[in-house]
Amino acid sequence: MAADGTGKDNPAQREAVLTAVGAIREDPAAPHLLADLASSGFYSQFHFHRIFARHTGTTPGRFLTALRMQEAKRLLAETSETVMSISDRIGYQSIGSFTTQFTRLVGVSPGRFRELVDVLAGYRVTEPDLERARATGSRTVDCRLTLSGTAGTPLTDRISFVGLFDSGLPQGGLSGFGIVQGAAGTLLEQRPAAGRSEMFLMSLSAHSPLVDLAVGGDEDMLVSRGRTAAGSGTAALTLRALDPLDPPVVSAAPAVHLRSFLGGPSRGR
User: Fold this and answer.
1) Is 54 helix (H, G, I), strand (E, B) or coil?
2) Checking CA distances to 113, which of 48, 72, 244, 248 falls within 20 to 30 Å?
3) Is residue 125 part of a domain?
4) Is residue 131 part of a domain?
5) What are the pLDDT digits (tens) for 4-52?
6) Is there a domain that residue 63 lies in?
7) Residue 53 in contact with residue 16, Cβ under 8 Å?
């Protein structure tokens, strides 16, 4: 950790980023200009941009967009509001811009996402045929999980879904996928990157609704992230509780993948 006070353990910087993230979460439809976010901590825009990225893993603009997409997914799943109304509520002036952004980051259009929620309704995360759902791919990666000291329930009570992405955030389509029951499993990298892929893990209780995987988890979700290095056949991840500074999981790709492995028709919302 940096000795000059610029590391992630700097309490004043973390507090400034928490204040900014709190403002974004409270009103995702607002523009949240960088100048306004930086001023709450008395930082220059340039310095605050670096601090924010250091603590969250992404920029203020991308964090705001991710939160908007998460709220849009929640509204699509829990309400009957029109796509136009949802677009307005989260700060988009053009439904076309919203639909394009949603489709790119979530992996399906708003209408398809609502259909996905209807298909998944009534199922738990354990009910798809998880063995068949383990995607085939060109490279296998053995994945081993451990719990941090405050992570809560044992691994035996959880199902962990690991997505491999080409970007630094869990957005868009997958480059690989894995399901870990307990402490160990196998990931399949379908489109191996030239160097390494970003791994994002969502661990849910075995009793969680499958819809939670599409929407982005629940308050009891555990998370982890890491990288698969070129030529490496193993990955070790430590699960931890969600932090307020964690960007939302926007991609619905894991849930889209599992849809094909349900044992029967949807049981309704």
Assistant:
1) helix
2) 244
3) no
4) no
5) 334 567 888 999 999 999 999 999 999 999 999 998 778 999 999 999 9
6) yes
7) no
Q: Which two tokens stand for residue 90?
A: 């989260």
Report whether 267 contacts 176 (CB < 8 A). Answer: no
Report yes or no: 105 and 172 within 8 Å, Cβ to Cβ. Answer: yes
For residue 236, the one-letter residue type is A
**Residue showing tokens 């009793």:** 207
Structural tokens at position 107: 């992996």
In residues, how long is the chain? 269
Residues 254 and 224 in one domain: yes
Kindly state the helix (H) or strand (E) to which residue 66 belongs, with its residue range.
helix 60-78
What does pTM read for this prediction? 0.86
Tokens at residue 68, please? 């908007």
Token pair of 40 as six digits = 């709450």
Token pair, residue 264, equals 């029967």
First-to-last CA distance in the chain? 48
Spacing of C-alpha 257 from chain mean position: 15
Nearest to 110 by CA among 74, 160, 146, 140: 74
List all residues 6 or more positions away from 83 whose beta carbon is below 8 Å from its beta carbon: 76, 95, 98, 99, 110, 111
Spatial CA neighbour of 135 closest among 223, 256, 236:
256
Yes or no: say if 203 and 239 are a contact pair by the CB < 8 Å rule.
Answer: yes
